[in-house]
Amino acid sequence: MALATIFEKIVGSEANVAFQAYDGSKAGPDGSDLCIEVKSPIAVAYLAQAPGELGLARAYISGHIDVHGDMYALLDRMWNITTNDLTTQEKIAAVRALGVKPLLMRVPPPPQEMRQSALAKLGSRHAKQRDAEAIHHHYDVSNRFYEWVLGPSMAYTCAVFPSEEATLEEAQYAKFDLVARKLDLKPGMRLLDVGCGWGGMVMHAAKHYGVKALGVTLSRQQAEWAQKAIADAGLQDLAEVRFMDYRDVKESNFDAVSSIGLTEHIGKANVPSYFQFLYGKLKPGGRILNHCITRPTGKEKTFNKGGFINRYVFPDGELESVGWLVRQMEDTGFEIRHEENLREHYAKTLRHWCDNLDANWSDAVEEVGMGTARVWALYMAGCIVGFERNKVQLHQVLGVKLDKNGRSGVPLRPALNWP
Question: Which residues form the active site (predicted)?
Answer without folding.
Answer: 383
